[in-house]
């Protein structure tokens, strides 16, 4: 007596659905992230653990190491800063003011620029920083020193 051979159907995952899902995730992350390239004046920013990226509609104020002040990449004397900030904030009322002060600039000068910005009507002032390296995070022990050979 001969028995019939049973053919088993192998179930395979559909590659099309997997590729579609991966593509949608890639598209989502690409569109949801915002990158802002700030070019112009070279500034050594202080480091911080958390930082947010600036939006294009923000007013960028840079205080360079030598004390010069720039508003949206144009040099502005301190005496004219208030008027210039009023103009910029009138054009971009919903934006924040991003203060990019060199870490070597005296604290008092940064505070004076912040005061002028508040008087000019800046509702939100953010201080730009660089992300801290792991060995610079407060409260985290320093990595052990490598032995000298």
TrEMBL record:
Gene3D superfamilies: 3.30.420.270. Residues 140-149 have a biased composition (Pro residues). Pfam families: ExbD. One of its GO terms (molecular function) is transmembrane transporter activity. InterPro entries: ExbD (IPR003400). The chain crosses the membrane at residues 21-41. It comes from the Bacteria. It is a single-pass membrane protein; Single-pass type II membrane protein. It comes from Tectimicrobiota bacterium. Residues 128-149 are annotated as: Disordered. This is Biopolymer transporter ExbD. One of its GO terms (biological process) is protein transport. Keywords: Cell membrane, Membrane, Protein transport, Transmembrane, Transmembrane helix, Transport. Its main location: membrane. PANTHER family: BIOPOLYMER TRANSPORT PROTEIN EXBD-RELATED (PTHR30558:SF3), EXBD MEMBRANE COMPONENT OF PMF-DRIVEN MACROMOLECULE IMPORT SYSTEM (PTHR30558). It is found in: Cell membrane. GO terms for cellular component: plasma membrane. Belongs to the ExbD/TolR family.
